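Appendix C reproduces, verbatim, an entry submitted by the partner laboratory led by Prof. M.T., so that reviewers can inspect both the input and the predicted structure.
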Amino acid sequence: MPLRETGKLVRVTTAGEPFEAFVPHPLPPEPPLALTPEHFDLLEQANRALGRLDGLSRLLPDTSLFIYLFVRKEALLSSQIEGTQSSLTDLLLYEQDEIPNVPLDDVEEVSSYVAALQHGLKRLREGFPLSLRLLREIHGVLLTTGRGSTKDPGEFRRSQNWIGGARPGQARFVPPPPEHLPECLGALEKFLHDDPVRTPTLIKAALSHVQFETIHPFLDGNGRLGRLLITLLLCVEGALTDPTLYLSLYFKQHRNEYYDHLQNVRVKGDWEAWLAYFLTGVRETADSSVAAATAMLERFATDRQRIESLGRTAASVLRVHQHLQKKPITSVPLATAALELTAPTVRTALGELAKLGIVREVTGKRRDRLYVYESYLQLLQAGAEPL
């Protein structure tokens, strides 16, 4: 027996093939969540970890640097879950107009994710509500380029989709038919705005993510946008000042559990197990983000001390070192333009950094050379290797 019914099955026929599609009931769940003391402990732990992360981001000397690189890591991880083979190095090279070592579609898809998140945050900061209209806007940016660019960017689907299998009758899961989307999405939007009841932020984020993935309202990009929804909701509700929590690494590392929990909500109504999984992910991800930010700051401080021992050239080398914190892969022309130093000064500074083992030249060329802040990039790339 299921814990509760979370939706209804409707009979559909497409291209002469009959199958059943799932139409979810509106949130919140009925009967209500049966939260145990363990759930409340997890909720408190997750909120505390989120508070530590938000507090740390306010103490960082350059919050924009932390956000810039963590947004890119999240974009990479979320796209990897969908099957792209990009690395963080590929994305950083692409953003510098260098040619990455993966199919261009892969890295364009990751780059579009960055742009989509930035668009959503900008609109929220302008006072625009987290709404269906905004989700359509973000989806339009998300699918600007890459594989999904031909699948109606910014438009809710007008045809049936499914998850797994070559056709709906063989699928692991079939979302609601398109004629049910207005009802399902309208109810989700109301829930996001605390209608019919106010829901604690992390619980709302957990439930909304599953509901969005179950509705699957677009022809492509639903997984990425559903993960973006978590971050946007935490920001608009004030749980985070800046977008510093990203769950894609946790979902990637535990992806079989992730997909099983989504399906168990639909089939068994087991919201409680999903919530425990989600809150554990928030706690672990927030704690690991704090550790990563702390390690970054320690790395910078250690390398800065070594640079300061250089004597006369230290001032210009320190400026290039600061540039590398924002662009861990750089070149003489790029650093020259960013710092307004002469090319010989930058070249000398990068040479000094290479002698110290802080950067490494990776092309082996005499011209068009690229320098990598290797130890820093390794910190950033932890867990972000392609599947």
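The chain is about 60% helix and 5% strand. Additional entries are available on request from the coordinating office.
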